Amino acid sequence: xxxRVQALLNRQNRVIKLSAxxxxxxxxxxxxxxxxxxxDTDLTTPVLAQTDMALQQRINQVEQRFYYIESRLNxxxxxxRYAGTLTGSSTSNQNQLNQMRSxxxxxxxxxxxxxxxxxxxxxxxxxxxxxxxxxxxRQARRQTSTSExxxxxxxxxxxxxxxx
Length: 164
Known about the structure:
Layout: H1 2-36, H2 46-85, H3 90-132, H4 135-144, H5 149-152
Helix pairs in contact: 1-2, 1-3, 2-3
């Protein structure tokens, strides 16, 4: 039974790490895209500059959370390997296994929260992008693409859920 649990935990760890890496790459690509197109827009107004700064802070917070989750996963992996080498009673092993399952469940919830917040940040980025388009470019984009809910009302403030 211990081998199956270990294999399951390793598989779950790989999936979570892959999700974290994918989200980090997505954030890096979005940040790079924004950086490359910053010269195309006029961000001299204080409102847009503050919005970009706030968005950058949010992205940094999401990155820090992903790093934290990755380090906790590494710790759990190390603990599970170490626990497998101990020759303790089955009760203590079961307690450790239950604790690891509890931590994995809480990490899943944290990842779901981060995914939701990442979606909100992406929506905010689309609103900022829509705000910075020239009227002609905005009209051309509306005629050629499907409507996106985040771009529908760019003048509305960007709403992010409360931090956990």
